[in-house]
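Data deposition worksheet. Section B asks for the primary sequence of the deposited chain exactly as it was used as input, without tags or linkers unless they were present during the calculation. Section C holds the resulting structure in token form. Section D is free text for depositor observations; keep each observation to a single sentence. Incomplete worksheets are returned to the depositor.
Section A, Depositor: J.P.
Section B:
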Amino acid sequence: MKTILNILLILIAISSIVASILKSDPVELKCTSFATALACLGAVFTDKKCRYILAGIALVLIAVTFFLQIHTEL
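Section C:
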């Protein structure tokens, strides 16, 4: 289970970094993408208690990025 979570977190981190570099988004979206990547990478390399806290923060940041993206498209 830990290995699957680590793989998913690393994939989310890599995709967030690539998306923030390659897309021409506003600064807010780039910052939340980098923050998501940092939270995911932090969750990979911490102990069990902090892992779930950082993974939860990453999920919240993904939701914030989604809503910011919808708001900027309008």
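Section D:
The mean pLDDT is 88.
Residues 48-73 form the longest helix (26 residues).
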